[in-house]
Amino acid sequence: MNSTIPQPSRLRVFAAGVKKLTLILTLPCILSVSNVLAESKHVSGGAVVVETGSSYDDSDSTRALWVDGNSTSYTGTDITLSGTNTSTSYYDAVAYVSSGSLSLTGGSITANTTGYTGSGKFGILVYGGGNTTLSGVDIVATGDGSGPTAGIGNISSYGHIQVNLNNNILLGDNYSIVVASLTNTGTASTITVTGSNGSLISGSVYAITYGIVEITLTGADTILHGDLINVNTYMNDINLTLGDGASLYGGGVATNLTLNDGAILGYTDGLTVTTSITVGDNITIDFSSLTETGEYTVLDWSSVSSSGDITAAQFTATGDGVEGTFSVANNQLTFNATAVPEPSTWFLIGVGLGALALIRRRSS
Question: Of 121, 251, 218, 102, which is closest to residue 175 (Cα–Cα)?
Fold first, then answer.
């Protein structure tokens, strides 16, 4: 990504004290506990567990939390899960649900991938079936930039991951939301992400065969910073809806795109829409990344059979020192940039953004 985007006004650092204790629950029982400190947790055999304020890591295992069994469930509030596993297997995620159900409210799931040398299979949250719901959970990847392509993955031919963000962070640079089915059953795996009130999704979105990703963002400063990537073309969709003040800073391919009044697109290398597109009024296109004048394709919906009447008047350009005009022809929105910032201006902008980031970090 080569665009400059707003960043959250706070940087959260998660830490939890740990005592050496591994919990393995295999009986069909209901257990409610609070403030459990342990290394890892394995819930299976139909156990129904409810916890508050517990912390787990993967120091004694390949997973911090593992839910296993069709009737097994884990419900947690303000749970802290952390991992530093550098395995090359999708199954060795910080939180892994092979079957059963997982529901978390608040808390965090974090992964440090420093030193990771695998081929991109390290997982933060991986699901194999059933339903997972995360509400207000920070899902964060940290490390030295050598980390994986898979941050959240649904690898089953059934099941659903629902992530509800409210001023939360999802992933980090170089990490991704991945949805795929490993079996050709004709039933799609799904991941649904909703973000509001300044949430930041930082990572690309991948849809592979039999995989569907639904992303709905609303509210000012709610940002998806990453590309939309359809790896195959068979039963895989990426559907994106942006509300007033919400923004996408990235390119790629969207299956269905809805830009409601006041939505924002940060131009990087253009966005293609394959099936349906709906565009409201007062759509802002941020061209802060431009360094040269010329004509740029912002939106391409030429393969959409029916798109309604989309006009250049629905779009407004922004970006320091950027000037130009929009035009719509052949189901494409283009921008003819007649002026862009001088190199010295970019240097000053970079210095200013760096200082702003430092101030925000110190104040958080």
Answer: 121
User: In terms of DSSP bridges, do strands 332-339 and 323-329 run parallel, antiparallel, or are they unpaired?
Assistant: antiparallel
Q: How far is CA 202 from CA 7, 8, 80, 169, in A?
A: 10, 11, 20, 8
Helix-strand-coil split of the chain, %, nearest 5:
5, 45, 50
> What is the tens place of the pLDDT at every residue in 8-56?
332 233 223 323 333 444 445 555 555 555 689 999 999 999 999 999 9
Query: What's the rounded Cα separation, in Å, for the pair 13 and 214?
Result: 28
pLDDT digits (tens, 9 = 90+) for 183-221: 555 566 788 899 998 898 888 888 776 778 899 999 988
Q: b/e map of 162-189 (b: 16 or more CB within 10 Å)?
A: bbbbebbbbbbebbbbbbbbeeeeeebb
The per-residue pLDDT for 31 is 53
pLDDT value at 263 more than 80: yes
Residue 72's CB is within 10 A of a number of other CB atoms, namely: 25
Going by C-beta distance under 8 Å and a sequence separation of 6 or more, which residues neighbour residue 334? Answer: 295, 296, 297, 298, 326, 327, 328
Written as six digits, the tokens of 27 are 């009986």
Confidence of residue 1 (pLDDT cuts 50, 70, 90): very low
Task: Give the CA count within 13 Å in the CB-facing half-sphere of 35.
Answer: 0
Q: Residue holding tokens 């609070």?
A: 34
Domain positions in the chain are: 22-249
Please state, in angstroms and rounded to a whole number, the distance separating the CA atoms of residues 85 and 232. Answer: 29
Report how far residue 218's alpha carbon sits from residue 199's, in angstroms, rounded to the nearest whole number.
9
Instruction: Report the alpha-carbon distance of residue 336 to residue 288 in Å, rounded.
Output: 14
Per residue in 323-348, pLDDT (tens digit) is 999 999 999 999 999 988 766 554 55
